């Protein structure tokens, strides 16, 4: 882990089925600790862009979730989600259809 990853509490989750919503995302990751926020990215017409962000209360919870995902244990509709460290932490504001203010750079 680099210095940013050692402190991060936010993961980017990709390869999600279009049917996954914020509640399903939170429920799946709650197995690894307290989830402070989830945010799914949506196109202008409200359709899922099939990726989103999960912010945990503690870095250790995010690390455990990332390890589980790396082992293929984070699955939605039998497909493994791709999970990486977000480049920046999620801010307190986000809006559907737009990228959270400072959650991630180009994907």
Structure description:
With 107 residues, this protein is α+β, with helices and mostly antiparallel strands. Helix content is 23%, strand content 28%. The strands form two sheets. A four-stranded antiparallel beta sheet has the order 2-3-1-6, covered by helices on one side. It has a two-stranded antiparallel sheet with strand order 4-5. Strand 2 and strand 3 form a beta hairpin.
What would a concise description of this structure say?
The chain is α+β, with helices and mostly antiparallel strands. It is 23% helix and 28% strand.
List the helices and strands and how they pair.
Elements lengths: L2 H5 L2 E5 L7 H8 L5 E8 L5 E9 L2 H12 L4 E2 L2 E2 L1 E4 L22
Antiparallel strand pairs: 1-3, 1-6, 2-3, 4-5
